[in-house]
């Protein structure tokens, strides 16, 4: 059969008939050249050329479209399958879909963002499936509501949009039962009564020094870091007294926690562990560094190749790499660094 190959720059077509070992090179620039070409090949090949309308092949072939590397998965994708975030990082449709699904069950990822800049909905919407678009729009109302009300019926527990509230009662759109928006129990008349289970839990929280967020009323516990708390709802407050951050005279960190964090940093750096002769001095230097940088904004990072290092935010082990903050030495995976912190 005919084997044809086109070189765009030279306008050559190579014609090879079944019984020809070497192709005949013919310049196809005008009709006379076409007639000569057809005269020099057998009838079957000539008919094949005419049927394929090869006259269009004299037009240079289009240049191949360069692909774009996704910042999240590092794979290459066609430009139409990638969006550029406000921070200039590129995200493919699959990684965006993964992030938007994750943020609906993990509020630390909401709103979907990169480098602390939210993705404009109009920018990413068309790359998400219709099912995910509908689910996210509905979930966004819930996640953007600070004082949320959920159906008091344990087997239902559906979120009740604030626009559905009638006075202090919130009718559930799923089971039609009503919930009090103040005490979050079954709707009632008069003053809200005491909730023994809630009071017992809050008593335990007070005993352990766990404060409640003034914005969403969540109870929080500090494991590591300074006393500056940033809640999932965005509220910032003091861990010791629950007042709005920087409006109280409380200490900004607990010295024991700070020393634990400093020791962890020294150990992460591979300085020989507790047995090293200068370990105490290194911990002291690291502690002083943390005192000066305890409110780090995590602006500059260095990538650390890893066989198995742990992200200090999501606590997951990373097989390829982690990023380490140049200022406070926090170690975080790519997702936590760009989409969570």
Automatic annotation (TrEMBL):
<dbReference type="Pfam" id="PF01485">
    <property type="entry name" value="IBR"/>
</dbReference>
<keyword id="KW-0863">Zinc-finger</keyword>
<protein>
    <recommendedName>
        <fullName>RBR-type E3 ubiquitin transferase</fullName>
        <ecNumber>2.3.2.31</ecNumber>
    </recommendedName>
</protein>
<keyword id="KW-0677">Repeat</keyword>
<dbReference type="InterPro" id="IPR031127">
    <property type="entry name" value="E3_UB_ligase_RBR"/>
</dbReference>
<keyword id="KW-0862">Zinc</keyword>
<feature type="domain" description="RING-type">
    <location>
        <begin position="66"/>
        <end position="254"/>
    </location>
</feature>
<dbReference type="GO" id="GO:0008270">
    <property type="term" value="F:zinc ion binding"/>
</dbReference>
<dbReference type="InterPro" id="IPR002867">
    <property type="entry name" value="IBR_dom"/>
</dbReference>
<keyword id="KW-0479">Metal-binding</keyword>
<dbReference type="InterPro" id="IPR044066">
    <property type="entry name" value="TRIAD_supradom"/>
</dbReference>
<dbReference type="GO" id="GO:0061630">
    <property type="term" value="F:ubiquitin protein ligase activity"/>
</dbReference>
<dbReference type="GO" id="GO:0016567">
    <property type="term" value="P:protein ubiquitination"/>
</dbReference>
<dbReference type="InterPro" id="IPR017907">
    <property type="entry name" value="Znf_RING_CS"/>
</dbReference>
<keyword id="KW-0833">Ubl conjugation pathway</keyword>
<keyword id="KW-0808">Transferase</keyword>
